[in-house]
Structures are given as C-alpha cells and as structure tokens.
C-alpha cells in the first residue's frame, strides 16, 4: 500500500447506506482498514427507516435484526371508502439504533464531527485542511441535484409523542388518507412505539420538495385531536423530502458521477414509488462486502451496475408515478392508492418489494381507472424531464 494510502475504504456520510456498508464490512471482513466520516455528533441523523418482511430475504432480516427495535405482525391502511388490515410483518429502525449498535461496533473506525470539503474517488479533503487517502472512497452524503431525473416528492414531518392516555393502536397505520388532501396525496403515518408513545407523521406526495413545517405541525396536532389524543410531550421531530422518480436518463446520471463511487439516495437506490431505501441499502452492503477488490474503479462499476439494474426493474413504477402525478387531480390522488389497496395481499407485498410479476402489472392497470383515461395515456407516454424541467433534480436531503 502506498505510504499516503492509510485506508482500504473511506465512507463519507454516516447515513443509512454507508452505515450498513461499514457495519457489514467490519463484521464480515475485519482485516480491512475502513473509516466512516460523519459531520454530525453521531451517525444516522434523526430518522426512522421501516421495511416490510417481504422486502428482504430471511438471511438479510437476520443480519440486520440487532438494529430493529420495533416489529409488528401486521399493518393497517385507511381510506375514505376502504379500510384494511394486512397480515404482513413490518419493522422499524431508528437513528438511535444505529448509534446503539453500529457506532459502538465501529469504535475508532468512525470519526464524528468531521466535515468533508472535497470528495474524490481515492481521497477526502476535510474542512480542517487534512487530506485522507484510501484505495476507494464512497460518497453517501444524501442526494445531489441532477438535471437527469424528473421527480415528484414525498415530503413529510413526523413527531414522536407521548400521549396523556394510551393510544390503543395494535399495529402501524402506514396510510390514513381520510384527511384533508391539501393539494396533493396526503396521508398520516402512525408507528406505535409503546402504549402511550407513537410517531405521527404527516406525509404529502407533491410536485415540489418545498415544505411548510408549521403547517405540517398544525396538521399533526389537529389529527391527534380527531383521534381523541392529548399530546403530553413531543419527544423528537424528523422531516425529509424523498424523491419520487417520474423519468430520467440513467446513463447520463452515472456519467455525471465521473467515476466517484456513491451510495444510498445519491446513487438513486430507493423504491421509485414509495421512497423506501432500506432494502436497497442492505443489498448494496452485501454486494460490496462480497467484492474481492475494493479499489475505486471496481466499486464504481459494481454500484453503477446495481443502480442500473434497479432502474431497469423499476420502469413500471415510474409509469405508475407519472399516472399519479400527471393524470390525477392532486386532491384526488388518494383514489389511485385506495383502489390499489383493494388488490390481493401477495401482490401488494410484491409491490413494496419491487418484485412485481407480469400478471401483477396487468392486474394493477386493469379495470376502471381511478383517473381519466386520456390523461392516463398522456402521462404514460410523456417525458416529464423534457416537458417540465422544473421537476428535474433532487432539492432536499431526506431520510
């Protein structure tokens, strides 16, 4: 190893993807010298990441199990004309779990309170002026603006609260769309963490990443009142803006990286419709840990291959996104999701896992559409990247 190259791998940004990569490498290949750099005081930020059991293989659920603090055997969805409980396992990981497990495991392989000024494939220059060298560097500092992608957004603000009396929820409510829509597909997301402790998240599928925190906080307070809940204390608050991909130029997207290995949302590794990113982060961590060589060119090629394969596999989801954002009246978008949740439970599980069968796709599109047929066809065959460049780019970092 060159005298200037002190590390096999440096990971910049201690979010979900880089945290899992570092932890997996530390466990599976302890001979490697890795370093995880995080600008904050601790890794993981202030987020909650959730997944369905069907999103991951059994062996994947086993190795991330130490991170999972909350697990439920079923979940609910609520719409104006339809309510349903699905017997599908659902689990959540909080940032505090990252600190509890991964930060403790990495020890000196983690440096917090360190900001990167310049990131290159084999070096990192810190704001302090120090330069660190490695065989490879992965940039995982969240999404970067890109004119190659046409996007909608899932913006949200969540408050974990302690209630004056028990909430009586027995399972998560991943969508309660029986609320005022406010110019986009809006729903409330509920995670019961204890008898009187619950995460209430106000979520909107909207055309821009701009969000109004005061309005969302007021929405949460109003929703709690409709449930008869008296909020005794707000324990913490999280927010974000997840990209919802409508169309894009994946080849150009990766050309713009100029050989820089990236991870997570920065690599476009997330579910195009739901924004869920944990399953993609798990798969990427496994793929990187299995590589024989960890030099920059090998890593870049492997991550690009993973992202391009996901892009090809998720073409149908981008079609659905265009129909949702471009064919449906913003205040009526909930009708699309209400109809979807009347479909068979195994299909819904495969949808979240992004593993739809050809017959599943036909089933989703069959029958009377919840949006005007003409508008649906125009959205299906349109190129929003060209027709509406304002949609292009990722505006806000998200969880």
User: What top-tier CATH class of the domain at 7-70 and 90-145 and 249-313 fits best?
Assistant: Alpha Beta
Quaternary structure classification = single chain
What's the gyration radius in Å? 21 Å
CATH homologous superfamily annotation of the domain at 7-70 and 90-145 and 249-313: FAD/NAD(P)-binding domain
Shape assignment: globular
**Annotated CATH architecture of the domain at 7-70 and 90-145 and 249-313:** 3-Layer(bba) Sandwich
- Uncertain residue ranges: 386-399
N to C succession of SSEs: EHEEHEEEEHEEEEEEEEHEHHHHHHHHH
Query: What is the CATH T-level topology of the domain at 7-70 and 90-145 and 249-313?
Result: FAD/NAD(P)-binding domain
Q: Report strand order across the widest sheet.
A: 6-5-13-14-15-12-16
* C-alpha termini separation: 36 Å
Structural class: alpha+beta
Q: What helical percentage do the residues reach?
A: 25-40%
Structure annotation, total helices: 13
Characterization of the model:
The chain starts with 6 loop residues before the first strand and ends in a 12-residue tail after the last helix. Helix content is about 35%, strand content about 30%. The protein has a domain at about 5-70 and about 90-145 and about 250-315: 3-Layer(bba) Sandwich (FAD/NAD(P)-binding domain), CATH 3.50.50.60. A hairpin with a 2-residue loop joins strand 5 (about 75-80) and strand 6 (about 80-85). Residues about 385-399 have low confidence and may be disordered. It has a seven-stranded mixed β-sheet with strand order 6-5-13-14-15-12-16. Strands 8-2-1-11-10-9 form a six-stranded mixed β-sheet. A three-stranded antiparallel β-sheet has the order 3-7-4. The protein has helices spanning about 15-30, 60-65, 95-105, 215-225, 250-255, 280-290, 295-315, 315-325, 335-340, 345-350, 360-365, 375-380, 385; strands at about 5-10, 35-40, 50, 70, 75-80, 80-85, 90-95, 110, 115-120, 125, 130-140, 150-165, 175, 185-195, 195-205, 230-250.
């Amino acid at each position: 190893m060159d005298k200037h190259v002190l590390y096999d791998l440096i990971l910049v940004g201690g979010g979900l993807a880089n945290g899992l990569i570092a932890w997996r490498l530390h466990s599976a290949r302890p001979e490697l010298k890795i370093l995880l750099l995080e600008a904050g005081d601790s890794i993981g930020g202030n987020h909650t990441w959730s997944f369905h059991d069907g999103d991951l293989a059994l062996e994947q659920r086993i190795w991330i199990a130490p991170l999972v603090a909350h697990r439920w055997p079923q979940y609910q969805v609520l719409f104006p004309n339809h309510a349903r409980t699905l017997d599908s396992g659902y689990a959540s990981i909080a940032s505090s779990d990252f600190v509890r497990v991964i930060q403790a495991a990495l020890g000196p392989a983690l440096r917090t309170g360190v900001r990167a000024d310049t990131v290159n494939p084999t070096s990192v220059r810190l704001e302090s002026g120090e330069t660190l060298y490695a065989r490879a560097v992965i940039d995982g500092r969240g999404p970067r603006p890109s004119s190659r992608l046409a996007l909608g957004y899932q913006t949200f603000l969540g408050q974990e609260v302690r209630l004056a009396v028990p909430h009586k929820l027995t399972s998560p409510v991943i969508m309660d769309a029986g609320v005022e829509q406010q110019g986009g597909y809006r729903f409330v997301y509920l995670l019961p963490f204890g008898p009187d402790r619950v995460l209430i998240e106000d979520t909107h599928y909207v055309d821009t990443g701009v969000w109004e925190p005061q309005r969302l906080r007021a929405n949460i307070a109003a929703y709690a009142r409709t449930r008869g809940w008296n909020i005794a204390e707000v324990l913490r608050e999280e927010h974000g803006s997840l990209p919802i991909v409508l169309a894009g130029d994946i080849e150009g997207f990766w050309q713009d990286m100029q050989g820089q290995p990236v991870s997570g949302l920065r690599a476009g590794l997330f579910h195009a419709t739901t924004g869920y990113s944990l399953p993609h982060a798990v798969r990427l961590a496994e793929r990187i840990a299995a590589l024989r060589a960890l030099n920059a060119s090998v890593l870049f090629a492997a991550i690009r291959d993973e992202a391009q394969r996901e892009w090809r596999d998720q073409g149908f989801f981008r079609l659905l996104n265009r129909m949702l954002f471009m064919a449906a009246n913003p205040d009526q978008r909930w009708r699309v999701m209400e109809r979807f949740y009347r479909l068979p439970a195994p299909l819904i599980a495969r949808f979240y896992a992004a593993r739809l069968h050809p017959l599943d796709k036909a089933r989703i599109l069959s029958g009377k559409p919840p949006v005007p047929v003409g508008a649906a066809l125009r959205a299906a065959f349109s190129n929003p990247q060209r027709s509406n460049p304002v949609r292009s780019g990722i505006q806000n970092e998200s969880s």
